[in-house]
Amino acid sequence: MDKLKSQILSILFVASKPVSLTELQDVLEVTEEAIKQSVAELIAGNQTAGIIILAHNNKLQLASNPDNSPAVKKFLSLELREKLTDAALETLAIVLYKQPISKAEIENIRGVNSQYSIRHLLIRGLIEKIPSPSDKRMQLYKTTLEFMQHLGIKDMKELPDFEELTKNIEIPQAPTS
Amino acid sequence: MDKLKSQILSILFVASKPVSLTELQDVLEVTEEAIKQSVAELIAGNQTAGIIILAHNNKLQLASNPDNSPAVKKFLSLELREKLTDAALETLAIVLYKQPISKAEIENIRGVNSQYSIRHLLIRGLIEKIPSPSDKRMQLYKTTLEFMQHLGIKDMKELPDFEELTKNIEIPQAPTS
Amino acid sequence: MQVKTAQFEGPLDLLLQLIEDQQLDVSTLALAHVTEQFLSHVKSLQEKNPLNLADFLVIAAKLLVIKSKSLLPNLDLGIEDEETAFDLTTQLLTYKKFKEAAKYLKNLDARRKQSWGREVDFTDRITFYPDPDITATLLAQSLSRVAAELKEIVRLPKEVMKEVVSISDKIAHIQKLISDKLETSLSSLIKDTKSKTEVIVTFLALLELTKQRIVSLEQTEHFADIVIKKTIHGQA
After folding, report:
1. ipTM of the complex
2. Is the pTM of this model over 0.90?
C-alpha cells in the first residue's frame, strides 16, 4: 500500500469522529486532489474488505463491512438498529435526494408538518443540521455517515439516481395560458 | 479479500479489547486451523497497511501502523487543541447544569445525536462517565472536578442563572412519528 | 368508506391512496372524483388527530376548488385558484416520486445489513485540555439558546390548534342561521369569515349538511350566487 493511503487509514483508525478532507490535508500537507485520489482508490476496495471507508459530504470514517453484519452482531451480542417508520423513510428520502434542504421545503413536498420526523432522524444521527450558506439563521439538512452505516451503503455511488428511480412517474408540463 | 478474512477484520475492528482465537472460532463457526491460516495471511499481507494486526498470547488486536506515528500524533494533537464547536459547547452546557445526565436525555434536550460531542468532551477531560445510581448498567455524565475548578465554580448553585436555566431545560415528550 | 387515520403519513398520502384505490391516474378529474371521500376523512380526523388537521385543510381547500370547477365548469375563480388545482396534481406526483424513493430505502433497511464504527473508549487518551475561551457565562448563554428552542417544540401543537376552527361548531352555526333565515346564500355566509381556514371549514360544513340532506344548494344561473335552502322534511 502506498504511503498516503496508509497514513489516511491510520488517521481514520485513531479518530474519535468522522474526519473532514480539510483536516487530512492540514495534517498530511498534500493537495486536496491527492487525498481525493487516494480515498477513491481505497473506496474501490470496499466491496469485500473487512474494514471499509465511508465517504459522504467531504467527511470520512471507517466502518465494518455491512456484509459481515451477522458475524459482528453475534460477536458484540447487540441488537441491530431499529427499522425506520414510513414517515421517517419518506423524510429521509427527501433529504437524501434534495440535500441540503430546509424544513419548509421538506414539508412542502410531504404536505404535512414534519417537525417530529426530522427530530427523530436528527436524534438517530441519520441526518444533520448545517447553517444555510445564504442565511446563517436558516438551517438545512443533510444525510450523514451514520445514514450509510444504518442502511449498509458502502459507497454513495451505489444509490440509484433519483431520475432513474422515479422514471415511471411523469409530471405533466404546466398548461400554457 | 475472502469472506473469512473479511469477517475476522470486521470483528477485530469493532472489538474494544483484544480478541482470542477461540472467540473468533466460536463466532465464525470454523476450525481453529482455518482461523490460524487466515490470520497468518492477514498479518503477512499488512506490513505497509495503515491498520495492522498485533498478535500477543493468542489474542489479536488492530493498531495503526507505527510507521505513520508522526502523522497520527500530529492529527491527535490538532484534534485535542481545536476550539470547541457549538455542538460541543451546547452539550457541555447541558451536562454542566443538569448533571448527572444520560446520553438519551442530552439528545432529547438538544434534539440531535450527540455521540461525537460527548466523546470529544470525554477525551478532553471536561466530562466523565459515572454509573447510574438506579441502574448500574446505565452510564451518566457529569463534569470533571478539573473543569469545575477551571470555571472557578465550587457549587452548582454558583452557576449563572442556575435556578431559571435548570427549570427551563425540560426534557420534551418525544412524540413518535 | 372507512379510512383509518394512522395508516396515512399526511393528506397527500391519503389522496394518492384514494386515487389508486379507484385505479385512476393522477389528474384533476381523479382529484374531483375522490374529493368527497377525502373530506369525510378530514371530518373523522378532527377527533382522532387534530394536530394534523391544518395540513389536511390546506389540501381540502384546493380540492374544493377542483370539485366546484368540475360541477360548475363556468364558475370563474380567477387565475390564481385555477393554478391551485393544477399545482395539486404536480405536488401529488412529486410526492409520489419521493414515496417511490422511500420504498427503495425501506428495502435497503429490510436487508438488515448494517455497519459499525469502533466502539473504543479512549481512556488512554484522556487529557485535561479545556478550550481557554470557555467560561461559565458562555455556557449559560449556550444553554439559554437551547431553552428557547425547547419552548418552540412545546408551543407548536398549541399554535396549530389555534389555527383550526372547530368543524362541529361551524355546522351548528350554519344550522342555526338556516333555521333563522330559512334561506341564505353562500356569499353572506363567508362574508364575515376572518381567515382562509374558516372559509374552508364553512365549505366543509355545507358539504356535510348537503350530504345529510339538511340543506340543498341551488344555483339559478351560471355566475349567480349559490343559494342554500333548508330542506323541507321528507322532500329532499
Report:
1. 0.93
2. no
